[in-house]
């Protein structure tokens, strides 16, 4: 028994059935060890893609996602995706090969201080020191990744530790991998309920880990129990998230803000400083740092705080809440604002809103459908024009390019759900080679690429801030065909130039039993900016 065998056994006991990885010298012992417990390796074409796959797998399955990469450059390639997983509150175990302990300080191949580099991106980083500790270290990582605010945890695996002889494996139980839970205190719950009862227009904000994909109808039930609107914030555009409609307008009239597992950060305008600057704030968060920041930002507005896990608090408040209709008018007002949309401008080429309408029609009748949406202006239109509850977006990190790896991870987590991923032609370039991974791993889904031959979000900024004559560096090759690239990498391809072609192409792509890319020629459009006071159509950039 090698250390690698102990680690593979612990992974199997934790319920890991798939690892997303890009191979390298230092992790070959673990590749070999994963054969016997039957753990599948999905071999990506880039290390960041492996982390994105593990991230989506964790979000859809409710289990941990595991990414495995090699040392130094491989490790470094994955860090940006780790930041995204952290901001999206995804429990990912990030395993990286490492140079041998016995050669520390001697200039070993790819010797690198991984712990120091990883710590800003993860909840914790540990370099395992001996073969017998590999299994317990993995269990510790799983517990921490799931605890409090979920997030990634890093384990560095020195090559000589993986290869070293280990003693007999110690059997583990589910308790070894169970996260500690900071339960709701009854006095704290009673104080929250009493304080909320004093207001006429309170709002509740939660973070990504309580969204519909991961939390089901928990937020809906919590809002009903407390008789208030409950909103999940998870967009890098914060209150400008087009999926929130004109919500920012009603935020200005709220008289109390309750943050449950959601830091008072940029997504809420730093606790509504500009929109609702007088409203008192209640904050329940598993991270003491979030409470410290809120005190510094909000001062006396922060009236009630507690350190607790959001899931148990939500469950306890739902069970204890009496519900009612005293705030029915306020809840309807918020719902109407959330549903508010701006009518898109007519364009000769296909408008992104037309793409969103077709996707909505294709997925709306399936309760388990999954929508994956990348960033950029195309992505914002899709988020504004679709109402698919189970979705993965690029999250608070604002990263782009993850949609295709997300689709692979999501498909392996849920093999039969209708799944559509959407991305612009700029974001498509980040991980285009993962179409080969999708084909090789037989993961069937449809990818729509909105092709306007530009980095449109950046060009919108240039035109808005510097003028139409100051555009620079944001054009892409006109006529580039992403469907042809996907076909060359083993997938099916479709090219759509007229709106009437899109519905049939999407139906064919979803029913074909293979990954498919639909290249859609779209008009360049700025993201929708929704306001009930300004219903004019959104104009295209000059």
Walk me through this protein's architecture.
This protein is α/β, with parallel strands linked by helices and 542 residues long. The chain folds into three domains: 3-177, 3-Layer(aba) Sandwich (Rossmann fold), CATH 3.40.50; 186-339, Rossmann fold (3-Layer(aba) Sandwich), CATH 3.40.50; 352-521, Thiamin diphosphate (ThDP)-binding fold, Pyr/PP domains (Rossmann fold). The strands form three sheets. Strands 2-1-3-4-6-5 form a six-stranded parallel beta sheet, sandwiched between helices. A six-stranded parallel beta sheet has the order 13-12-14-15-17-16, sandwiched between helices. A five-stranded parallel beta sheet has the order 8-7-9-10-11, sandwiched between helices.
Summarize the structure.
The protein is an alpha/beta fold and about 550 residues long. The protein is built from 24 helices and 17 strands. It has 3 domains: about 5-175, Rossmann fold (3-Layer(aba) Sandwich), CATH 3.40.50; about 185-340, 3-Layer(aba) Sandwich (Rossmann fold); about 350-520, Thiamin diphosphate (ThDP)-binding fold, Pyr/PP domains (Rossmann fold, 3-Layer(aba) Sandwich), CATH 3.40.50.
